[in-house]
Amino acid sequence: MRRTCLFGAILLVMTNVHAQQPAVKLITLDPGHFHAALVQKSMYPQVDPTVYVYAKKSADLQMHLDKINGYNADAKAPTHWKEVVYEGDDYLARMLKEKKGNVVVLAGNNQLKTDYILKSIQAGYHVFSDKPMVINEKGFEQLKQAFTTAEKNKLLLYDIMTERYEITTVLQRALSMQPALFGQLQKGTEAEPAVTKESVHHFYKYVSGAVLTRPAWFLDVEQEGEGIVDVTTHLVDLVQWECFPDQVIDYKKDIKLTTAKSWPTVISKTQFSELTKMNEEPAYLKKYSDDKQNVSVTCNGEINYTIKGVHAKVSVIWNYKAPDGTGDTHYSIMRGTKANLIIRQGAEQQYKPTLYIETTDHSAAYEKTAQEIVAKIGQQYKGVTLKKNEKGWEVIIPEIFKEGHESHFARVTEKYLGYLANRNMPAWEVPNMLAKYYTTTQAQKLAAKK
């Protein structure tokens, strides 16, 4: 069955009938995660406003369409997407056959995602995928095949790394590339890694101003993936991106895992109903449940490893709900020979990410150097300054640069579209995506042994 959904949008009238048609036509395949909709929270001039959606009829699909409807009806910055939806059990075969678009957007059930990636690439589509692209060792082998096929057929396969656009992370990376301020990245030890990244997430959260409804499969680690292969994808990516900017990471020789572990968060029956809007858990969750229908979700994980000889640690923790006035949090430290660059997001920072430069060198000469370097960076990021404290400085960042997680989807989409148009994706991106997913899937395998 086919139906056309126009959600409160008024299509723009083309004033020039000879205007060039947009080069990019999106297909959204089996949307099951809100990140699929966030790609469309903004419009892009090179993207056709008609988007083709292929999926089974489901609550996941309807929630996706409802979010697009909300963006089209937004009072401040309305979009004008037209969703043309195919509903049917043969949705994948129809999508592969019909060739309605040229870029497949994926964000949903991670158990299915890797197969979607490979089949879409084999069918000649570009792919723009939410993380994680793989959740186990078998999926990693499929991903390698997908990248090989993409290269052969000149297709672009890319994952959505929104955290590269968080301003404190951007500036942490920029400052780490200043030897006069940071020195050199230390090698660290397992007990005191050179780089540590920790994040705390929550099942119950607000997205686009409304409480997010989670699909029940989100709690099934066979479908969503364990935490060690899911959210840690972002953290492993940032370790590579910040510590070795613009460098190729060869997973076969540069990555060495030392320890990895996973552990569960328990979701009560009441919390399950609040999250999913379902009264009874589906059969596939029974294997994680106790006699009171409390679900144990293996969503927490920690990886200790070395990358090019540098000790790194990444960890992710999932709680049910953040205390009032708080939200997801991030902690990051890069240890240099002259200074440490630290992002904190606790009560002292009012739960907003804040970047610090901490050093033992409190000389006037070093302070002058720090001020000069930040002033130079401030030419690109207007208004960035330093505020002195006992350990060094807090980096003061103007509010204009603090866009928030949802806005980062437009940034990474714009980056992908630029690569697509200009054929200029950096040579390090593909090997580093492979290194990233090798790290997470091998960590999952190591943690499972314990």
Give a structural overview.
- There is one protein chain.
- Helix content is 33%, strand content 24%.
- With 450 residues, it is of the alpha/beta class.
- It folds into 2 domains: 2-159, 3-Layer(aba) Sandwich (Rossmann fold), CATH 3.40.50.720; 164-408, Dihydrodipicolinate Reductase, domain 2.
- A 9-stranded mixed beta sheet has the order 11-12-13-8-14-15-16-18-17.
- The longest helix is centred in the C-terminal third of the chain and has 21 residues, at 429-449.
- The protein starts with a strand and ends with a helix.
Provide a brief overview of the structure.
The chain has 450 residues and is an alpha/beta fold. 33% of the residues lie in helices and 24% in strands.
Number of strands: 18
Task: Tally the structural domains.
Answer: 2
Oligomer: single chain
Integer average pLDDT:
93
Q: How are the elements arranged and paired?
A:
Elements: E1 2-5, E2 26-29, H1 35-38, E3 50-55, H2 59-72, E4 82-87, H3 91-98, E5 103-106, H4 110-122, E6 126-129, H5 137-152, E7 157-159, H6 167-176, H7 179-182, E8 195-204, E9 206-207, E10 210-211, H8 221-224, H9 232-243, H10 251-254, E11 255-267, H11 269-276, E12 295-307, E13 310-321, E14 329-335, E15 340-344, E16 354-358, H12 364-377, E17 385-389, E18 392-396, H13 405-422, H14 429-449
Parallel strand pairs: 2-3, 2-5, 3-4, 5-6, 6-7, 8-13
Antiparallel strand pairs: 1-4, 8-14, 9-10, 11-12, 12-13, 14-15, 15-16, 16-18, 17-18
Protein traits:
alpha/beta; 18 strands; disordered N terminus; 450 residues; Dihydrodipicolinate Reductase, domain 2; Rossmann fold
